[in-house]
Write a structure and sequence with these properties.
The structure is a single chain. The chain is α+β, with helices and mostly antiparallel strands and 91 residues long. The chain contains 2 helices and 4 strands; from the N terminus they run E-H-E-E-H-E. It has a 4-stranded antiparallel sheet, with helices on one face. It starts with a strand and ends in a 12-residue tail after the last strand.
Length: 91
């Protein structure tokens, strides 16, 4: 399944309390359950004013539908073409 990186601009999100992040996560999981197995949340990185999410999905439209149904911004959705890391330099 293709992998996507989603950028969500949410001012002040990095200062959120654990309960707020839990509520966001619960909403996301609820919407994912509705959408079915063709879209999966892998993990997210919370920064000061943005969340960067990694999803597996059959297509970009499912990623955007998840955002719409959950009330989450999806300012940028990009398909991952490949993953590199320090071991790539050794190839």
């Amino acid at each position: 399944m293709p992998k996507f990186v989603i950028e969500r601009a949410i001012p002040g999100i990095g200062a959120s309390k654990a309960a707020e992040l839990q509520a966001i996560s619960q909403k996301s999981c609820s919407v994912l359950h509705e959408l079915g197995p063709d879209v999966q949340w892998v993990h997210s990185y919370v920064t000061g004013d943005k969340i960067y999410c990694v999803y597996n999905a059959a297509n970009e439209e499912l990623v955007r539908e998840h955002a719409r149904l959950g009330g989450f911004p999806a300012d940028s959705v990009a398909q991952v073409m490949t993953v590199i890391d320090p071991t790539t330099a050794e190839a």
